[in-house]
Every structure is written in C-alpha cells, then in structure tokens.
Design a protein that fits this description.
The structure holds 2 protein chains of 2 kinds. By secondary structure, chain A is an alpha/beta fold. Chain A has helices spanning 14-17, 40-47, 71-77, 90-99, 140-147, 151-164; strands at residues 2-7, 56-59, 82-85, 102-105, 116-120, 123-126, 131-134. Chain A has one domain (2-137): Aconitase, domain 4, CATH 3.20.19.10. In chain A, strand 3 (82-85), helix 4 (90-99) and strand 4 form a beta-alpha-beta unit. Chain B is α/β, with parallel strands linked by helices. Chain B is built from 15 helices and 18 strands. Classes of the chains: A alpha/beta, B alpha/beta.
Chain lengths: 165, 434
C-alpha cells in the first residue's frame, strides 16, 4: 500500500512531465532531476527524496500525450513511481514497457492526493475510499517485453539467439 | 475480407500473406530516422551489446537517417557535445543519410526525408519523433517510437511486437474556401476526434479534397494526426504522390503505390465538408480545444510563429508572404519565420518571399524546429501569448508555463501579425486590416 503523491487531470503531456528545455539531458541517470520541473513544489519534493519509491501518480485520460521523448518515462522510472491513469498515449505506453516503468490503466479510477492505493491482481484498490477499480491488462505482446526485463534485455536475448544459430 | 493500406503494408513487411487489426507482427524497417536524440539511441544501442561478447553492428546503415533540427545551431555546450558524438558515430558507421547543420542540405527531419526521396509508398518508416506520422503523406506507414526502441531497430532491423492498428477512415470532400487550408482541416479533425480519439489507431485520408491537395498539405494532415493520438496518418499514394516523388524528390526508380481494398474494414468513418470550413484555432492548452476563428478573433498576440514540420513549406510561406507583402508587422508583435529546410529557404529566397518577410518586419530564422518546442529560441515572456503554425500548445510548450500558445494556419498567422490580434484572413483580404 502506498500513497497518491500527485493527482492530475486528462491529457498530461510530455511537456508537463519533462519540459522540452531539458531535452539535451538524455541519460536515464540524469533525467530524474527534471521530473515535472514546472510543478516546482512536487519537483522539489522528488529531488529532496521526500517521495518514497512505489508512490502513486494518478491521472485522467491520455497520460503522456505528445512527444516521443523517452526522458518522460526515464524521469519517472528514476523515482520508481507507479502511474495509474484512465488511459495512456501510445508512444508513452510503449516507452514505459520498454524501460520497465510501472503503468496501470484503470479507466474508472478515482483517487485524490493523500489516498492510499494498492494494486491487487487486476484491480486498483483505493483503500482510503474503500473502492475497487478494474485494470485493463497490457496486451500479451507488451507483457512479453516486461517479462524479459524490458526491451534492452529482450533485444540482447534475440541477438544472442541469432548469433548461436 | 478487404484490407486497409496499413494492413497491406504490414503484411508485406512481415512476410505474411495477410494481417488484420489486432495481429502482432515484426515488420522489417525500411527507414529508421533520428534527430538529436540519436545521442540517446547510441547510448541504448551500445547498452544492448554490453556483456554479449558481440560487436555492436547496425543492421543496415543505408536505412538510417539522422537529421539535426531540434537545436540548430546548438544552444548549449551540452547540445553541441551530443551533436559531436552523433557526428562521430555517423562517420564511423558510414551513415550516408546524415543532414548536419547546413544552409543547403539541412532542415527539419520531416521535410528532409520526403524532399530527398527517402520515403516511398508502402514503406515502414520509424522515427524517434512523434511527428514521424508526417510521412504517411507519401503512402508509407510511419510512426514515432522512443530511443530504446530505435536502438533495438538498429540492432535487429525489425520492429518488435507491433500490434496492427485498426483504421479510422477520414473522408474530406468539397472545395476549400479561400484562406482555408490543410491546417484548418486537421485542426477541425483533432477537435472532432479529441486528443485521444485516435489513440492506437491509424487515420486513412480519402475524398476529393485530399486528391486535389498537394503533398505539402498532405504532410500537414499526417503530421498532426498524432495530435488525435493516432499511431499514424496515411494518404494512399496516387498520381500526386508519384508527381511529387519524381519532380520534387528526384526519385527515378519504380514506385509501387499501395491502395486499400474497396471493402476494407474500418473502425469508423468520419466525413468532413471542406467547402463549409472556416479558419480554425486550437486554444490553450490542448490541441483538441479547437474553435472557429470567430470565437477568438481579437485576442492579443505578442509573438507570431510561421514554420515547423507542420507548416514551414514553400506553399505555407507563399500564403503568408502574400498577406504581409508591402505591409508592416504591428508594433509590439514579434513575427518569426523559419523555413522547414535549406531547399525551401533557397526557393523562398529566389521567389522574393524572404524579402517580403524581412521588409514587413519579420525575423527570418534558419531552418529547424525553432521556437516550437521551447528548447532553443523564441521563448515567451510571462503572461505573453503566441499565435503559431506549429503543432502543439501544451502548457509550457514554448518554454514558459506562464504563457499561452494558440495554433493556426499560415494565413491566420500572417494576417494576425499585421494587426497584433487574432485576425480572420478572409476579413483582412477584404480590406478589414490596415
């Protein structure tokens, strides 16, 4: 069980998650400092390590819309946040799967900052409100990547299999 | 059962007889494009090979394209160092389709690819940029991916675990009224579909308006398809596509257009009557917050931007120059123009359009992404408003979260630069603006 540390609305763009002016910073080890840089108070908490790993961000539809910048995923992955949203944009979804960011699609989810959530099987449980919301499972094609430990490991395995053949 | 264009392209690229929406395929990649984020692709590419004992090897360097456009010339030592790293990698790996910062051959990736004939109908085109959807204008299946996915493509030559997307058919009929163009069609469509209405879907464009539209306008349509969440936009290749490839892109070898079957299966069909369309404006802070110009005319603007992968082509510059020619940009307005490529810049120069802009008081900038994504130049002050022909108006998009961005066509942008407020170019043409 962990807390919702940030609750957002629909159409949260990659410009909000990781503003374009920090795009020259590319390495996953360096991007976490700029997560939600324009939400200054939240960014300050992240940088001060006041947000425990495994905390939740809850959002509406179309989270991660806009740019293909992978920094928008690596910046959240660096803090090991879990994103629960009513829906995710396509490129963000694929980048999250590729890098192992935990994203949970729950089209009916209701939660506010401070609520305690738990993921149990195919449900998100809002413990604070005593409500359960169904989760849309990732398609099998994406689950295979997650099971392999992300796209780098998956591709590495393919190359090695090919080299042995 | 009939097939959509994308189903046919993915069947061919995956070595299958037929595929349908929902199938998972591993298509061979015909063209793999990156820009400055190639620095991250290189990092991830090398990461894949770590501990394998294998030598990092790009599957086919002739299918890679790298174009510098996002921050040109470099705005910081960090960017310059990333560009240097990419330049060295390009040289070491024999990547010929490399467009450095040059006045003649440089420009925005989504203009460089088509104008050099790198994109062919029926091709699978991947790019580490969300607006890679643009290349559907030439009948290719083109979509944006992240840097790690591109690293995997560099290693394998295929895109892994691609789910064949379902297609929404968009039919546009009717003659566009004067001062209304492709940008107004796509803004209207994004407003209709909403920002997530085509998420994981393809938009396939049909109708007599599309048939009559030059490739430059089709690039605008497909470019902004991603603003409705679409995996890709696509215009089935036709006589205009072949003309563009031959006359403008210098392609002399045989090209095979891919057409959808008459009984192809579409998720739904959206119809638009172009003859009734007015200039459209996307209002802050989402691209689907679209209104006909009458509802926002008169809004004060501080910066007008004409350019980008959406609207920096010669047709766009001609429309805008025709409006500002012999007139002056209003006091208190900064008008920035950035042609999409060196080739377009040269054509605009030879036709006198650059002189028209400069004499009107506009600042003509070098080809590149310019102020569009707020990383490089043309930032907005607190409380300021931009009116822009670019593709996104998200909060903070132009570098300042305390500013507003409205999106519009080149005609609206040019007419508004003369007045300092959002102005209907149809009224301005009738003599409404000074």
């Amino acid at each position: 069980m962990s807390q919702v540390v940030l609750a957002l609305g629909d159409d949260v763009s990659t410009d909000v998650i990781y503003p374009g002016r920090y795009m020259a910073t590319v390495l996953p080890t360096e991007t976490p400092q700029f997560a939600f840089a324009d939400l200054a108070a939240f960014n300050a908490k992240l940088k001060a390590k006041q947000v425990p790993q495994g905390s939740f961000i809850v959002a509406g539809k179309n989270f991660g819309c806009g740019s293909s910048r992978e920094q928008a995923v690596s910046t959240l992955k660096g803090h090991e946040l879990i994103i629960v949203a009513k829906g995710f944009a396509r490129i963000f979804t694929q980048n999250a799967v590729n890098l192992g960011l935990n994203i949970v699609e729950a089209p009916e989810v209701e939660a506010a900052e401070g609520d305690e959530l738990e993921i149990q099987g195919d449900e998100v449980i809002n413990v604070t409100r005593g409500k359960r919301f169904p989760v849309v499972p990732l398609p099998p094609a994406r689950q295979a990547l997650i099971a392999a430990g992300g796209l780098i490991a998956y591709t590495r395995r393919r190359l090695l299999a090919h080299a042995r053949a | 059962m009939g097939k959509t264009v994308v189903e046919k392209i993915l069947a061919r690229a995956s070595g299958r007889t037929a595929v349908s929406a929902g199938d998972v395929v591993e298509p061979a990649v015909d063209l793999a494009m990156s820009h400055e984020n190639g620095a991250l692709v290189i990092n991830q590419f090398l990461e894949i090979y770590k501990g394998t004992g294998l030598t990092p090897r790009i599957w086919d360097p002739s299918r890679l394209a790298i174009i510098f456009d996002h921050r040109v010339p470099a705005e910081s030592p960090k960017t310059a160092t990333n560009q240097k790293k990419i330049r060295e990698f390009v040289a070491a790996n024999g990547i010929a389709k490399f467009h450095d910062i040059r006045g003649d051959l440089g420009g925005i990736c989504h203009q460089i690819l088509p104008e050099n004939g790198y994109v062919r109908p029926g091709a699978v085109v991947l790019g580490t940029d969300s607006h890679t959807t643009s290349h559907g204008a030439l009948g290719a299946f083109a979509f944006g991916i992240g840097a790690t996915e591109m690293a995997s493509v560099w290693a394998l030559g295929t895109a892994l675990n691609v789910e064949v997307p379902a297609t929404i058919k968009v039919v546009v009929n009717g003659t566009l009224p004067p001062m209304v163009g492709a940008k107004d069609i796509i803004l209207h469509l994004v407003g209709l579909l909403t920002a997530e209405g085509a998420n994981f879907r393809v938009l396939e464009f049909h109708g007599d308006t599309i048939r009559a539209m030059p490739t430059s306008g089709r690039l605008t349509l497909c470019n902004m398809s991603v603003e409705a969440g679409a995996t890709s936009g696509i215009v089935p290749a036709d006589a205009e596509t072949l003309r563009y490839l031959r006359e403008e892109a210098g392609v002399s070898d045989a090209v095979t257009p891919v057409a959808p079957d008459a009984d192809a299966t579409y998720l739904r069909t959206v119809e638009i009557d172009a003859s009734k369309l007015e200039p459209q404006i996307a209002c802050p802070h989402t691209v689907d917050n679209v209104k006909p110009i009458g509802q926002v005319a008169g809004t004060r603007v501080h910066q007008v931007v004409i350019g980008s992968c959406t609207n920096g082509r010669l047709d766009d510059l001609e429309v805008a120059a025709g409006i500002v020619r012999g007139k002056k940009v209003a006091q208190g307005v900064r008008m920035l123009v950035f042609p999409a490529s060196g080739r377009i810049y040269t054509q605009a120069l030879l036709r006198g359009l650059i002189g028209d802009f400069v004499q009107a008081g506009a600042v003509v900038m070098n080809p590149g992404c310019g102020p569009c994504l707020g990383v490089h130049e043309g930032a907005l002050g607190d409380g300021e408003t931009a009116l822009s022909t670019t593709n996104r108006n998200f909060k903070g998009r132009m570098g300042n979260p305390s500013s507003d961005v409205y999106l519009c066509s080149p005609a609206v942008a040019a007419a508004s630069a003369l007045t300092g407020v959002i102005t209907d170019p149809r009224a301005a043409r009738a003599g409404g603006a000074q």
